[in-house]
Design brief:
About 10% of the residues are buried. The protein is an alpha+beta fold. It has a domain of about 110 residues: GOLD domain (Jelly Rolls, Sandwich), CATH 2.60.120.680. Strands 1, 3, 4, 7 and 9 form a five-stranded antiparallel sheet that branches. The chain has a four-stranded antiparallel sheet with strand order 2-8-5-6, with no helix packed on it. It starts with a strand and ends with a helix. About 40% of the residues lie in helices and about 35% in strands. The chain is built from two helices and nine strands. Strand 3 and strand 4 form a beta hairpin. Keywords: Endoplasmic reticulum, Membrane, Signal, Transmembrane, Transmembrane helix.
């Protein structure tokens, strides 16, 4: 994505609790002379801020023009990940565009292939098995989180349907009461005028 040099850009990630999140990013600055983005942006860093669903700041750190950040969520819900350059140029001068390449991996732990090749076959199978077990635990946590969200949604839907039913009953009773009152008022009017 593209942002201005002094602009803040945020990404929302829906993350289950107790989940590791790893993010890699790279910043490129627009070059006026070549009319293209430079391969890197030396001297330019990024403030990375992660906020929990309750508004608590989980991570706030300054990184370089290319880096990796990670955090573990302790609450399930929408986490806000914000990026802002550490440019000190004035807003009038800092009109340069930045391109940010972002890769966010939620709950994944990648195997280090070079370390696995250095070990013998038994250790390789053991490490791969541990990796699979870890991924199974992650999938289980993800399913529990989705089940919890579905249960909240179903409860909210049932409450809404119940409220609609009671509102319809109240409207019907009001309509019947007004109808009876109008008939009684008309009948009393006709009796008073001696038309009946």
């Amino acid at each position: 994505f593209h942002i201005g040099e002094r602009e803040e850009k945020c990404v929302i990630e829906d993350i289950p609790s107790d989940t590791l999140v790893v993010g890699n990013y790279k910043v490129q600055r627009w070059d006026i002379h070549t009319h293209d983005f430079l391969e890197s942006a030396p001297g330019l860093g990024m403030f990375v801020t992660v906020t929990t669903p309750t508004g608590e700041v989980l991570l706030s750190k300054l990184y370089g023009p290319q880096g990796t950040f990670s955090f573990t969520s302790y609450l399930s819900g929408e986490h806000i990940i914000c990026f802002q350059s550490n440019s000190t140029r004035f807003a009038v001068i800092a009109g340069s565009k930045l391109r940010i390449h972002l890769d966010i991996r939620v709950g994944e732990h990648f195997l280090d292939e070079s370390a696995i090749q250095a070990k013998d076959k038994v250790n390789e199978v053991h490490d791969r098995l541990e990796h699979l077990i870890e991924q199974i635990h992650h999938v289980t946590r993800e399913q529990d989180y989705e089940r919890e969200r579905e249960e909240k949604f179903r409860k909210t839907s049932e409450e809404t349907n119940s409220n609609i039913l009671w509102w319809a009953i109240v409207q019907t009773l009001i309509l019947i009461s007004v109808g009876i009152w109008q008939i009684k008022s008309l009948r009393d009017f006709f009796i008073a005028k001696k038309l009946v």
